[in-house]
Amino acid sequence: MTDISPDTPGRGRGGAPAQPPGPVPTGYVAAAPVAPPAGATPIAVGAPVLDDPGNETDLRFLDQPGAAPTTKAQAWRWFFYTLVGFVVGQLVAAVFGSAAGSLAGKTAAQMKVITTANVPPEWYTIATLLGLWVGFVGAPWLASRWHGTRRFLTDLGVRFRVIDLVGIAIGIGAQLVIVLLYAPFRHDIHNFNGPSQKLTGSSHGAGIVVIILATSVAVPVVEELFFRGLLFKALVRLCAPIGGGATTARGAAIVAAVVLDGLLFGLAHAEWVQLAGLALFGMALAAIAYRTGRLGMNMVAHASFNTVALVAVLSQRGGVH
After folding, report:
1. Is 96 exposed, middle or buried (0-12, 13-18, 19+ CB in 10 A)?
2. What is the rounded distance in angstroms from the CA atom of residue 201 to the CA atom of residue 197?
3. Of 51, 72, 85, 241, which has the fewest Cβ atoms less than 10 A away?
4. What is the CA radius of gyration of the chain?
5. Predicted confidence (pLDDT) per residue in 92-134, tens digit
6. What is the pTM of this model?
7. What does residue 317 show for φ and ψ, rounded to 5 degrees?
8. Is residue 229 within 8 Å of 149, Cβ to Cβ?
9. Cα distances (angstroms) measured from residue 306 to each of 37, 64, 195, 217, 313
10. Can you list the alpha helix ranges (DSSP code H) found in the chain?
11. Is 213 exposed, middle or buried (0-12, 13-18, 19+ CB in 10 A)?
């Protein structure tokens, strides 16, 4: 009888018990293959290895069962972190704004005027943005550490490809679409550029440069981490089943997650005049994030979108001076 050469002593190929060498002993029974636990998700041949730190495959938000959050229970926790992060961000922003006012020597009465001003000073704008980012970055970090793989960039989908530069055109195009959307109502809308003017404030010189960098670089990164990396991934897991083929129900669930993310993105800005435009842009960003499986194109598109708005405001007030 021909012997079977094992890969390791006492083991056959693939780790199965090898047939003992020589004649088969009386009563010898080959071990049956071990079946996977009931309910386990089978791993397709060639599927990305999610535990491999060097794996650069773009993981879809839903198509890979191992992509965080992996279960609906984790998704609920990620959604909870979104709510907590938003509230904490607002509170810390208020604290940072007050602290900046104290350093600037402002009285309580003066701070009350500043907090409600249409054109606040740049130091107040930067201080409140920093406070807001505490919640917007802290929440995704905690979700990844406590209910993810602890690989922050991987869990949140922060990856870039050259094709993501298409986001520049997407951001500019989104601004043009919003302009056309509001065109029939512009004569009824007062101070349409109010939100952008409030963000730029009364900045000039070095102050306006800081505002531009914050708005065109930092804000897109932070908001995409929060709204598409944390919130949208939670909504996808909550709305749609894990795995499975493309079905009408699955497609409807993804659309629901996209719409919800866009609406919450618009509402979070508390700009009621621009709510429709912001919500539509948020939906577009959510759809892009789902299709690409990463946030690179989103961040580029968001940065382009914000930059166009800043350029429009600065051109009206004469630019940097």
Report:
1. buried
2. 6
3. 51
4. 26
5. 999 999 999 999 999 999 999 988 887 788 889 899 999 999 9
6. 0.78
7. -100, 5
8. no
9. 50, 32, 11, 9, 11
10. 72-103, 108-115, 122-147, 152-156, 166-182, 194-200, 206-213, 219-224, 233-239, 248-268, 275-292, 296-317
11. exposed
